[in-house]
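User: Study the fold:
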Amino acid sequence: MATLADAPAAGTDDAFREEVRAFLAENFAPELKGNNNALSAVEGPSTETPAQKKWREAMGERGWGTPTWPKEYGGGGLSRAQAKILNEEMMKAGAWNPIGGMGVMMFGPTLLEYGSEAQKHEHIPAICRGEVRWCQGYSEPNAGSDLANLQAFAEDKGDHYLVNGQKTWTSGGQWADKCFCLVRTDRSDKHKGISFLLIDMDAPGVEVRPIQMISGVSPFCETFFTDVKVPKENLVGEEGQGWTIGKRLLQHERTNISGGGSMARMMGPSVSDIARAYGETDADGRIADPVLRDKIADYEIRWNTFLLTARRAAEESKASGGVSEISSVLKKLGTKLGQERAELTIEIMGLQGLGWEGEGFTEKELEGVRGWLFGKAFTIYGGSTEIQNNIIAKRVLGMLDHQ
């Protein structure tokens, strides 16, 4: 079974570092620095410039957008040590990964574990090249935190399923090419009656209705399935295995949401740097406001402690072969710290941290405001904090219900 395990190192670390530097010099245009749209999932995919297209294609050809994924499916096939070097050199160059989304964060790693060889060869290469956009068909109007209550039904029609039902809060559904979806194939068992299907979003019978927020953007959708034909080969795993596969995918989602990832990227520079840019400093270059200085120090101590914990968890998961229930711990802590960071940043920026549009605000300030507001959803995504508390209590701490 192909996994995200370490690949044999190719040459020395120094040689690989030089290879990465040469690649970046050739393919990452200086004008792309800082042009990564961290809120593309909210505001929709933007039109690629020629430089952005070249950068995405170059990363996709190397497989470096998914550096540790198996090379046979289009990934980079790098060891974790090499992936770390790649990340270090990209940060030095101000480069960002142009290949991401739900295909990379959630679906791809799950398919590598549970998919057939035919499914891996069909879907993984396009994810590695950033050519296909995926969305998630999980929540329903009466199946949110109680996800296993989902009712969208896939009726067995011999060589295909006929899917009817509704999903809601489908992030990016109006822009997606394909959907990984939990459906019911057996009404007699709540959990064992769920299966995992792959559905083309342009298939007849699929209707997407964007949900407009008060901010004017529509990152979420209602998705309706009316007699949608889905080939049997689009079933991942076996019938009735969907709950197991779906939970695994959520572990990948929680790991990616939690840590130094989404929310930190939205906000950009460090809190200390922002404070120095917007406030006064003393003769020694320290932030002049002692109360603010204490707040920042307290936050950065807790954030760096979390990063060390996340690193330790990553090493443990590498030894055990993948993500685990520890993802709930990381998700709970990481998203809360991300929200605290956003609040502190807005406080530092003062009136400049309250703009939504118009003159008088920089692009980064407007991105910060959007990141702050949108980040409120991060403690709900991938299972609310209350759900994570339950998982931690039962599966991490071993606490059982007493009757």
Confidence is low (pLDDT under 50) at residues 1-10, 260-267. The two ends are 41 Å apart (CA to CA). Residues 290-320 form the longest helix (31 residues).
